Amino acid sequence: MPGSAANSAPHLDGHHEPMSQGLDELEVLGDSAFDALGVLSRALHLREAILDDTLRAILELATSVIRSADHAGLNLYSNGRFTPQATVGTAPPELDELQQSTGEGPCIESSRSQVTVVVDEMDSDSRWPRFAAAAVAKEVHSMLCLPLWVSEETLGSLSLYGTTPHAFRDTDRRLAELFATHAALALADAQRTDQLRRAMASRDVIGQAKGILMERHRVTADQAFLLLKKQSQRVNQKLVEVAETVAATGVLPEP
């Protein structure tokens, strides 16, 4: 799993580079870069982080911090499924759709293998010829794809797009890796908050549906829940979907 070696960063070619080298190179960065990273770091402590807002903030800050990135995209990867989530710029959406349909490309490789993928010259890269041709047509001539992960949890990847070959220098790559670490933590927190919010909303609507059934059928809370569960199986819908119908209409959905 990525990150098992605390002092190294994984790359597609299989070797690990000492992280201390990257920290030395970061000394040449300007104040604006570190200020932007500080903003994202403080965002980790927002208890009510909204997932969509966090995704947008990550991408907007990425293109601000890494100035050679003209476009950016964030993709989730779960249970073998690659799912584009948010983009900044015109190039990523079409290229993400192509990767989804073909099942291959630098973003998928970075997400699946949890390695940093670098494409210095898109028009001469032979690993994903169909993707490379589409990228060049969109004026994307270099890419940097970075894995997003927290502890043992794989989240996906952050992709940066350059409009010139060799857009991402070593210092850009080191900064991008540091940024990806902050972004992964912010994303994980936002996902947990979003899941909790959804769980609370589901509990509330189930409670409303139970109350309606209890009054309508003169049954106990446990019996009302059993009615919801049985109807869920009968109509082949999730329990919360059945509860939403009851809460909205007052009656159980029919198959």
The low-confidence runs, each spanning 5 or more residues with pLDDT under 50, are 1-23
Spatial order of the strands in the main sheet?
A: 4-3-7-6-5
Largest sheet: 5 strands, antiparallel
Mean of the pLDDT scores? 79
The helix content, as a percent range, equals: 40-55%
Give the helices and strands, then pairings:
Layout: E1 8-10, E2 16-18, H1 19-25, H2 31-43, H3 51-65, E3 71-78, E4 81-88, H4 92-102, H5 106-113, E5 117-119, H6 129-137, E6 142-150, E7 153-162, H7 170-217, H8 221-235, H9 239-249
Antiparallel strand pairs: 1-2, 3-4, 3-7, 5-6, 6-7
Helix pairs in contact: 1-7, 2-3, 2-7, 3-7, 7-8, 7-9, 8-9
InterPro entries: ANTAR, CheY-like_superfamily, GAF, GAF-like_dom_sf, GAF_ANTAR, WH-like_DNA-bd_sf
Keywords: Kinase, Transcription, Transcription regulation, Transferase
Pfam families: ANTAR, GAF_2
How would you characterize the overall build of this protein?
This protein is an alpha+beta fold and 255 residues long. Helix content is 54%, strand content 17%. It is built from 9 helices and 7 strands. The strands form 2 sheets. A 5-stranded antiparallel β-sheet has the order 4-3-7-6-5, sandwiched between helices. A two-stranded antiparallel sheet has the order 1-2. β1 and β2 form a beta hairpin. The longest helix is centred in the C-terminal third of the chain and has 48 residues. It is elongated and about 70 Å long. It starts with 7 loop residues before the first strand and ends in a 6-residue tail after the last helix.
